[in-house]
Amino acid sequence: MAKKKKRIYCKWSDKEIKLLKKLFPIKKKKEIADILGRSFRSVASKAYVVGLRKVDRKEWSDKEIKLLKKIYPIKRTREVGAQLGRTLPSVTHRAYIMGIKKKVFIKK
Fold it and tell me: Which residue among 56, 61, 75, 91 is the one 20 to 30 A from 107 at the CA level?
């Protein structure tokens, strides 16, 4: 069996934290890890501790909202998401915020 590398904790310097904050919005964590000479996990952990978050939210356009209002009550959520190019959680959350409900169909 291969031996695991021994983990050695190395305190982050103020200079490293400053560089992390500068690079975090524009670089991937793996790239930052390579630049700083630290592990991916170390970079991800420190970013979390100092409050850095990647926010990759796509704003809803007026056209998307109009279409959501029209089709959400009558189509399956998965279909609505596919049509809008949105994830299932994104669609359900937006519908919830807007107060849009599914129509209940009773089979006869």
Answer: 91
